[in-house]
């Protein structure tokens, strides 16, 4: 075995049991062969036994392979391994040294503890037995002794305790390994009686420092007393703190050649990069799927230093760029993932070379297997918030650069405007994954940090070309859109579906609209009849509502009025649809009404409202919109719906006194009120499981799950199926729960002066006295009267999400009869997308932006 300064491990020789770790069962390999599986692991030390091998990393992770008939690999079984395997039992053991005997292994921790495993027939494990050990076991007799060295022979083990200045021995002594007469097997550690006291000898030789070194051969034991430590092996090359200062300050040609050599040695090696920037004070020994062991602040300090010296920075960047395509795609240890955390902070320059390197890094990340990508996501989630936010900014910036370049190339007619190349979307994939990590960890970073401003230009570009290919491709990464852009994407899809339906049925002369006549006095009955009779294709058509016995054509306003009136009706006690809780919010009943289609119909109606850009103001809690998007509601959501119950549950979580919890006499049941009060078990045998400090989190989670999921499973499933039927578009899943809530419920806070500013006057001027009088009276109206006026104009007393800043209406004189004036008005109305003689807002599907209402 040979370990290079660049961190690569080479093996050669006999391989009957896979002891070379190259994944092959070839009996003999005569030339050095790279151990690929350990690529990227920052190795500190290597060891070879008779037919098994072991290595330890700088952060104490231990890997073993080869023959395993006695359990000498420490993996809990006796199966041979031809590739390095991680010894999970030694995780966080802080291993600093390892030694291999013929069929046993010993490891030494930073605290001076010794573990042994494998063959124990001669007592070489030191456990006062001759039993084999399949997993690492602490040598109890050495507990507290703080061993500094360990060495394994064929069937014996040596350890050195510097505080006692003694060498201890256990195992076979039949070949004279103890240095005197032959002895039987020694089962526990005992000191060796050396002929000369090494410490005394060193003093007599007037040496200022004594160093004991122990060596165990096959059947030999050697104890060396040296004057000073021979550091002929320095380990793999890693970055030292003072090196960056030297690199930046030295600029002579001779110094530069040496600097370039060191930069190449470190930054062309995945293992050397992973071994640099380790957390201080032994924190990196805790490396796991949750802890990276990387000192990110140290990485940032290094970047700040070398960025001041372009020549050094470019050299580092050049070596890293060469390395990126060969990064490990199948990591075997959490230590492998350090490179993915370090490199973004080293490559965060704002030049083309940095952007190119970041794209290559993103490609390497996306090549990881799903389980490995999950490990990286876990490490991302455990970054400090400031570092995580900076990581988001780095990928957001390169994504912005990619999309700007795309936009410029399209506008200059240099490329097809309807497709993005894979290298242009790979950083968007990383950004979306980071967003998902952020959402799972409680939105530590605000959503607007993920927005990519260039998206607005792309959206406008796609709209102007009347092609949506690029828009659909970008919609895979909803985090890069702000809410208004998501609205445009959603309604663009709705418009496209409606247009596609018309084109597909043009030859058959199928009507492009869905005529929807209803009677006010039996509104829900008429709606359900239409929905029952409708085919799947009907829901892609544009809805045209008419109220029987009333004049007026639907320009969007009557459709909106339909949904507004239906929403009010569904919330009335007599409909049997939704329950109104003490919080004032509506929720599903736990007992499904006798009519099994009720919630399927209601869901269909809500889906239609979303498809037709209409507000449906049922006061649902945020939890409903989470469930529609496949997200799990939390205790915080329960506080919105049932504040008293939620506060009680939070009190249970916060209670520190066991006696108080016991006095509550709670078990895993919940009381369900209906025709009669019934106790519902939250888990099997829940009535017999008391709530304690140990299981209270589980109780709260099950309680929340019951309210939002289990108790309403059937009605919500029906509602969801109907919702998907009513809205054939699917891009609405880009919305966040809060955004989807606004889209369906509309804005309830208004800027009435903004409404005044957006008015279009026909035959009038803003300075006319009658106009001034109108607004004077309007602004003096109470809020409810203003909302009634808004409902009169648009069919709803809420402003749709897409019209918060651009809601318009026009004021015209209905007495005008002059044909020239009429023609002029018609031209103006046409330019403003005003449907002639239509009442209400022109919705996004037909008129799109901006919506306008005639008054």
Automatic annotation (TrEMBL):
Species annotation: Falco tinnunculus
Top-level taxonomic group: Eukaryota
CC per GO annotation: cytoplasm
Entries under InterPro entries matching the protein: HECT_dom, Hect_E3_ubiquitin_ligase, RCC1-like_dom, RCC1/BLIP-II, Reg_chr_condens, Ub-ligase/GTPase-reg
BP term (GO), one: protein ubiquitination
Official protein name in the record: HECT domain-containing protein
RCC repeats: 7-59, 60-111, 112-163, 165-227
A UniProt-annotated Pfam family: WD40_RLD
MF terms (GO), sorted A to Z: ubiquitin protein ligase activity
Keywords: Repeat, Transferase, Ubl conjugation pathway
Residues in HECT domain copies: 535-800
């Amino acid at each position: 075995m040979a370990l290079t300064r660049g961190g690569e491990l080479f093996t050669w020789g006999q391989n009957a049991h896979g002891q070379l770790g190259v994944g092959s069962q070839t009996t003999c390999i005569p030339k050095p062969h790279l151990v690929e599986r350990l690529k990227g692991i920052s190795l500190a030390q290597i060891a070879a036994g008779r037919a098994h091998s072991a290595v330890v990393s700088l952060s104490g992770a231990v890997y073993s392979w080869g023959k395993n008939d006695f359990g000498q690999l420490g993996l809990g079984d006796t199966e041979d391994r031809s590739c390095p395997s991680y010894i999970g039992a030694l995780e966080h053991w802080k291993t600093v040294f390892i030694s291999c005997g013929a069929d046993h292994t010993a490891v030494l921790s930073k605290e001076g503890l010794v573990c042994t495993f494998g063959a124990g027939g001669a007592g070489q494990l030191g456990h006062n037995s001759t039993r084999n050990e399949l997993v690492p076991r602490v040598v109890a007799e050495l507990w507290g002794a703080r061993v500094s060295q360990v060495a394994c022979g064929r069937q014996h083990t040596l350890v050195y305790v510097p505080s006692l200045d003694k060498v201890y021995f256990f195992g076979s002594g039949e070949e004279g390994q103890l240095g005197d007469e032959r002895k039987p097997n020694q089962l526990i550690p005992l000191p060796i009686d050396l002929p000369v006291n090494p410490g005394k000898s060193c003093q007599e030789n007037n040496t200022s420092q004594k160093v004991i070194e122990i060596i165990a051969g096959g059947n030999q034991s050697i104890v060396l007393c040296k004057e000073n430590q021979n550091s002929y092996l320095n380990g793999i090359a890693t970055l030292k703190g003072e090196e960056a200062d030297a690199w930046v300050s030295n600029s002579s040609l001779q110094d530069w050649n040496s600097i370039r050599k060191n930069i190449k040695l470190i930054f062309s090696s995945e293992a050397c990069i992973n071994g640099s920037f380790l957390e201080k004070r032994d924190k990196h020994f805790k490396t796991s799927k949750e802890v990276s062991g990387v000192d990110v602040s140290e990485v940032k300090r290094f970047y700040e230093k070398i960025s001041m010296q372009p020549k050094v920075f470019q050299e580092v960047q050049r070596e890293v760029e060469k390395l990126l395509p060969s990064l490990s795609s199948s990591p075997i240890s959490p230590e492998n993932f350090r490179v993915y955390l370090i490199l973004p902070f080293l490559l965060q320059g704002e030049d083309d070379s940095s952007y190119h390197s970041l794209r290559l890094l993103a490609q390497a990340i996306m090549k990881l297997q799903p389980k490995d990508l999950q490990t990286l996501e876990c490490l991302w989630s455990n970054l400090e918030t400031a570092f995580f936010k900076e990581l988001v900014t780095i990928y957001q910036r390169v994504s912005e650069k990619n999309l700007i370049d795309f936009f410029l190339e399209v506008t200059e007619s240099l490329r097809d405007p309807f497709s993005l190349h894979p290298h242009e979307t790979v950083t968007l994939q990383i950004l979306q994954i980071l967003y998902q990590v952020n959402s799972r960890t409680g939105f530590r970073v605000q959503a607007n940090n993920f927005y990519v401003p260039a998206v607005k230009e792309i959206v406008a570009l796609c709209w102007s070309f009347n092609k949506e290919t690029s828009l659909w491709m970008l919609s895979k990464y909803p985090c890069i859109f702000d809410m208004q852009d998501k609205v445009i994407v959603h309604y663009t899809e709705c418009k496209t579906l409606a247009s596609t339906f018309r084109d597909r049925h043009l030859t058959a002369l199928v009507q492009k609209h869905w005529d929807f006549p209803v009677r006010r006095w039996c509104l829900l009955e008429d709606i359900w009849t239409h929905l029952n009779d409708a085919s799947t294709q009907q829901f892609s058509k544009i809805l045209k509502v008419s109220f029987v016995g009333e004049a007026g054509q639907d320009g969007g306003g009557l459709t909106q009025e339909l949904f507004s009136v239906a929403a009010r009706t569904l919330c009335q006690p007599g409909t049997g649809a939704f329950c109104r809780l003490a919080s004032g919010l509506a929720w599903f009943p736990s007992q499904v009404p006798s009519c099994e289609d009720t919630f399927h119909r209601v869901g269909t109606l809500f889906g239609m409202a979303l498809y037709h850009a209409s507000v449906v103001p049922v006061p649902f809690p945020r939890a409903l919109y989470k469930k529609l998007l496949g997200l799990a509601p939390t205790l915080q959501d329960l506080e919105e719906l049932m504040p008293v119950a939620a506060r009680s549950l939070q009190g249970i979580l916060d209670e520190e006194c066991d006696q108080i919890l016991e006095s509550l006499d709670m078990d895993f049941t919940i009381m369900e009120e209906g025709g009669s009060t019934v106790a519902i078990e939250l888990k099997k045998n829940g009535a017999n499981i008391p709530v304690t400090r140990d299981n209270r989190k589980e109780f709260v989670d099950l309680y929340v799950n019951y309210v939002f999921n289990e108790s309403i499973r059937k009605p919500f499933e029906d509602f969801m199926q109907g919702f998907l039927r009513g809205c054939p578009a699917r891009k609405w899943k880009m919305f966040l729960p809060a955004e989807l809530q606004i889209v369906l419920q509309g804005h309830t806070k208004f800027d009435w002066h903004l409404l005044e500013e957006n008015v279009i006057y026909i035959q009038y001027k803003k300075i006319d006295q009658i106009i001034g009088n109108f607004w004077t009276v309007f602004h003096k109206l109470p809020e409810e009267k203003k909302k009634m006026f808004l409902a009169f104009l648009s069919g709803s007393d809420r402003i749709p999400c897409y019209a918060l800043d651009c809601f318009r209406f026009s004021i015209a004189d209905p007495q005008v009869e002059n044909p020239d004036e009429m023609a002029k008005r018609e031209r103006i109305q046409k330019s403003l997308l005003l449907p002639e003689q239509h009442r209400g807002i022109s919705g996004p599907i037909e008129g799109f932006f901006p919506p306008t209402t005639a008054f």
